[in-house]
Amino acid sequence: MKDSRPSDDGAAIRRRRQCSGCGARFTTFERIQLRDLTVVKSDDRRQAFDRDKLLRSVATACRKRPITPIQVERIVSGIQRQLETTGDSEVTSLRIGELVMEGLQGLDPVAYIRFASVYKDFREAKDFEAFAGTLGDAGQE
Predict the structure, then answer these.
(1) What is the reported pTM?
(2) Is there a smaller number of Cβ atoms within 10 Å at the N or the C end of the chain?
(3) Domains in the chain: boundaries
């Protein structure tokens, strides 16, 4: 190990390592898992919380937007921290979606609408229009 320090958001330990075989350097992140979380889906199925799946969902909404991977990581780490500190072992997918929308709303309106289109299951263009209309005139004040 070459270097070890807390990550930017303090939710992980960032370690810089070097392969003893080839000498290549790489970074690993170690996170403390407070508890095992189970996600309750809308059809009552249950599955283990998958941080990587959440990260991919947020990153997909932010693709081709002026949002850095660090910002995406902070949103996901914040959501995971909130979920783990509630004391509950189960969380609904609805709650996770709400937390993602809260995180994206202040970050980027396009990423927010992109995520909402999947989360709220938009089917037609008018669904986008109606949702975008609820965003208000905050940017025009």
Answers:
(1) 0.70
(2) C
(3) 1-32, 35-134
